[in-house]
Write a structure and sequence with these properties.
Elements (H helix, E strand, L loop, with lengths): L1 E4 L6 E4 L3 E3 L2 E3 L5 H6 L8 E7 L5 E7 L7 E7 L1 E8 L10 E7 L5 E4 L3 E7 L4 E7 L8 E3 L20 H4 L19
Antiparallel strand pairs: 1-2, 2-10, 3-4, 5-12, 6-11, 6-13, 7-10, 7-12, 8-9, 8-11
Amino acid sequence: MNVIKTDVLDVYIIEPDVFGDKRGYFFESWSKKKMEEAGLYYDFVQDNQSYSSTKGTIRGLHFQKGEHSQAKLVRCTKGAVLDVAVDIRKGSPTYKKWVAVELSAENKHQMIIPRGFAHGFVTLTDEVEFLYKADNLYCFESEGSIRWNDPEIGVNWGIDNPIVSDKDAAAPMFDDNKFEYFTYEVKK
């Protein structure tokens, strides 16, 4: 397993070791032991899966507030996405910065996104299945979101007219959120 730092603090790309032959392939999609050897400590308690039928669909940017915040390990098991994480931790050296990584069934890459980040993705193909582990249970009352096209953040989704839900289209802009939910803490 290869763990790669991104330009945004505490977000990592995970490249699993894939073993293939004429029958297909095998890989470990999660190993607590290997992650801890890489200095990443997560206790995932919930798995989620989404399906998007059409290329150009954006889901996000979403987060959970306060005690219900979630770290995620995300991957695409069918099709391809451009996955985006935005640092919303006040005081972080990468506050308001974002990273985008292509995750696909073909490359089998994953991204680990810690608590204190907004997350979203755009489908690069039709027929996308997307899976993620979360280290905290979902809580409807703690949902938060940022509008996908907020110029304050300036995510380059690579698309002009995406398909978005009514809820995501009406999400507040970054400056309309009160980001007292997350404060960056220096790791010792």
